[in-house]
Amino acid sequence: MGRRRHPWRRLFHAWVLLLAGGAAAQDLAALPGWAEEDAAAALRPFLASCRAPAWRGAADGPGGDRAADWAAACAEAAAVPAGGERAFLERRFRLLPAAAGLLTGYYEPELSGRLAPDAAHPAPLRGPPPEGTVMPDRAAIEAGALEGLAPHLAYADPVEAFFLQVQGSGRVLLPDGGVLRLGHAGQNGHPYRAIGRVLIERGAVAREAMSMQAIRGWLAAAPPGEAAALLRTNPSYIFFRRQEALRPDEGPIGTLGVPLTPGRSLAVDAAHVPLGAPVWLVTRDPLDGTPIRRLVHAQDTGGAIRGPGRGDLFWGWGAAAAAKAGPMRAPAALWVLLPRTADASSRQ
User: Fold this and answer.
1) What percent of the chain has pLDDT over 90?
2) Alpha-carbon separation of residue 317 from 111, 238, 252, 301 (angstroms)
3) How do residues 145-155 score in pLDDT, each as one tens digit?
C-alpha cells in the first residue's frame, strides 16, 4: 500500500512555499528577501568557517562539490572590499533546490553553579570518561555508574544541568563573579528522547502549548521525585569540556570548530547539508511572527537534527536568547549555497 499523505502535511508544505514567496530560485538575486539582506553581516560568519581548523567543506557533500572550490571561495571572500559582499556572494555561489522542513532554536544558557556541591547545586556537570568506557544510560550515570571515571567540572541545580545538556554548551556563573564556559565533549551513545514529547503523551501539556518554557513550568510545579523521574526518561547524556579561550562576546564552539554567531549559525544534519556551507533561511520569528529571511551558516550539528530540511537556529546566550529559542518550532525553507567552480564564477 502507498503511504497515506495527511492533510496537515500538505498544508505544512503549502505554508512553507507561501512563506518563501513561491520562489524556485536558481540564483541568489531571486531568493525571497535577498535584496534586504545585510550582505556584510551575512559574510562574516562564512569567513569564520573558512578559518576553522577542522574545515570539512563539501568535498563529500551533495552536488559532488570539490574541496578546491570551497578553498577558492574562502580565498576570494577574504579579499572582498567593503561594499562588495553582495556581488561576491551572487557571483561565487549557486543554489541547491529549496528543502521544506522544520526549524527549532537553541541558545547558550547562563546558570548558577559551584566548583563544589552544595544543597542548591548538587548535580555534577561531567567531563567525558576514558575512551572505550562502556556507557550506561542517564539514570545509571546519575546513580553513580561513572564515578571515578567522568570528572566533575562543576555543580548545578539538577534541572539547570539537564537543560545545559539539551543545549550542549553554557556559561556557569560562579559566586566570585567568574564564568566557566562549558562546551560539548561527547555523548553516551543512547538515543535522545524529548521529555516534552513524554509530557504530551501523558496529557500533561497540550501539543500546541509545548515549549521549553512549558517544560520548565511543569518541572517547577512537580514534586522533586516526579521531576527527576521525567528527566531520566531521556537516556541520552552529554559530557562537557572547559572552553577557556572564548571571549565574552563570542558564542560557544560548534561542531565545525568556530564560535557560533547569534542569529547566523545553524545546526544541521551534516549528511544532507555540508558543514561550513551558507544556507538561505526563510521562516518566521517565534514571538511576533514576522518573516525571517537571512543567510545563516551550517556550523553545528545536533542529536535531534535529522533530514535535509531540518535546522536548529542559534539565538545567542542568556534570557533574551532563551525567550526566542524556547518556543521556536516553525516551518522553514532552506536553500544550500554551494561554490561555483573557479572557471564558472569568473564568467559571471
Assistant:
1) 79
2) 11, 19, 9, 18
3) 999 999 999 99
